[in-house]
Amino acid sequence: MARFEQKIVMITGGSTGIGQVTALAFAREGASVIIAGRRASEGEKTVSHLREQGAQASFIKTDVTVESEVAHLIKEIVASYGRLDIAFNNAGYLGGKGPLIELTETDWDTTLDINLKGTWLSMKYEIRQMLRQGSGIIVNMSSNIGGHVARPMVTPYAVAKAGVRMLTQSAALEYIKSGIRINAVSPGPIRTPMSRQANETDEQRDQRVATSSPLGRVGQPQEVANTVLWLSSPEASLVVGHDIVLDGGFTLQ
Asked: Which residues are catalytic?
């Protein structure tokens, strides 16, 4: 029997990058997967890939910064699938970059809204459903930037991800006795478009990361997906409120 057979999994920001790779990994392990995101064309394309693997899958257009849309997302999942077993709150946005004194209010608000407020709203409605069920697992997407190390020129993102880490830990303590287990992952540079600097190719990004990482290479989306699946599995049943760093040793320097 596959690890996640008969499990209902929802992934925000699941249309591309780490979210998409994680969705495919859950599908290979037998899960039914719901993708939530703002871009319907990309979401439906990912759902097609999932169905090609034989998985039951669907896309629900959702802006995680809008409470009514998040509430609708969870309501639709329960109406269609009956429950929500696992949620991976992956939606994210690097946001405004530059000196603190030159950032605009929009830079700040948009970055915090997507990365922190969006995670909180997602958890709010996921947890409400999981309380009704008496069980559930949540994995949040944090980052080694902000979550574990300071980095100049990306202050809103760093602040948001630091907030996600504490949100994860606080909620984990609140709800573990109700059967809801909550953790996070904090990747470093992963081979996705989000990790590239302006006008940088994949190869240039890989070389830059290789010179600064003790491991000497960029991370792969599948490595993050593997960790999310482990945290969502019975093998990680003792892991509560933890934030797993996947950055090749960068934060140890």
From this structure: 157
